[in-house]
Amino acid sequence: FSPSVLGTREHWDAAYERELQNFQDIGDTGEIWFGEESMVRIIRWLEKHKVPLDSSVLDIGTGNGVLLVELAKSGYRNLTGIDYSPSAIQLSEKVREKEGMSNIKLKVEDFLAPSAELSGFDICIDKGTFDAISLDPSDAAGKRKLYVGSLCRVLKPEGFFLITSCNWTKEELLNEFREGFEILEELPTPKFCFGGRIGNSVTALVFQRK
After folding, report:
1. Which biological process annotations from GO are given for this protein (predicted)?
2. What CA dihedral angle connects 14, 92, 21 and 131, to 10 degrees?
3. Cα–Cα distance between 181 and 207 in angstroms, integer?
4. 3-class SS at 120?
5. Can you give the CATH number for the domain in which 118 is found?
């Protein structure tokens, strides 16, 4: 796929400034990437595998923070969201406040250059952030490598990484995360039929850090 403005910080700063204004004007929390079913899919997996409610969870590129709110409503209580866009964190703080979820931690962080205290997580979740990095007009391949290195640093050994992508197939993601991770499970996502062939518009995988 080609480089795109969707891979630039300027795009996301502007997008979240608009969403922040919309939230302040009409209380709209903004877009949920991959829809509500993508959040249900993640929470269902955590519950099915009896992941303890006090497990430390990092939402990489949290955006409006709605996924963290849903996790908190499901009983998870050690939740952190990061985003490199200050406007996104401002929006997620307002959503957190509206929902009364004061225990959700939110920070402006660039995942490609994480701070030292961003470490030791049991679970990392990515819903579209790796996709956006992959569209960066400047050295997307290098930034994907930085992403994998950061993930190895912040996720505990044997920790879980749940990724949802609309740009990458299962095989491509297995290749991208071959260093330090093994696939545990592919999660079911909606299928489509085109020209007699059946495919998935979204890929959702669970990896475990070696």
Report:
1. methylation
2. 30
3. 6
4. coil
5. 3.40.50.150
